[in-house]
Amino acid sequence: MTMRQVVANLNSILFFLLCMSISSAYGQADKNSDITPQFSRAALSTSFDEAAEGFSANLYQDSTTMPEASGGSTSAGNIFLSLLVPGLGEYAAGNKKAAKFFFGTEILLWSGFYASQTYLNVLQDDLESYAARHAGVIDADGKGDQYWIDIGLSPDIYTFNANKLLERDLDGRYEENRDNEWVWDSEDNQITYAQKRIDRVDWKKNANLIVGGLVLNRIISAIDVIRIVRKNRNLENQARQSYLNLRYTELANEGKALRMNLTVLF
To answer: Where would you tag: which of 134, 166, 191, 192 has the fewest CB atoms within 10 A of its CB?
Structure first.
């Protein structure tokens, strides 16, 4: 298997992981949509005399120790962490499973980017060596990308400069010296070179897609952090506002009465 095939397969895997990250970021929200209120038993100590006079107490009242609701600064901080390193915001919010997924995706994306850049350098070296063998290019150092495009458009530097004169593009001409000179030994080799250059351009587009994947991974991670923070905030509010109220009082017309009021917010 060639280097190009290996990197192409890696790009396919990375695209699949990005699709999975989108579904994973929102799939857990449906699983955890049902919130079950939790109550802990509170001590109730009173005498019958106090009850006769009338009192109100919370028999089942939430006393679970929970952190304060996440403020705006904490949420913004977690979002910033996810934009910096995908998964870091999830880890800070306590969702280690999602953090591992985004960490793994980020590592694979960077591995794919490094492999793509390495292969781009291989293609560039191949272009330069091919031009040296078949067009007589002697020095590749200091020549910009435009030079490697132009030598594939004309059989030699003299024809290229003549065409630029006809186009009245004086700035596009090259100084006719040994450093800039090229003369293709055959038309077929010139066409082969042009195709090699086009292949490199196409591969550079694939490398740019990986960069887009890195940006997308950060956006998805930041959105996932917002979902986690909102879910945790809802759980905190749920635990604080759910209670069972017991009222024991003596009414003038009904005598002693025991009344219970259960409040559960969903």
So the answer is: 166
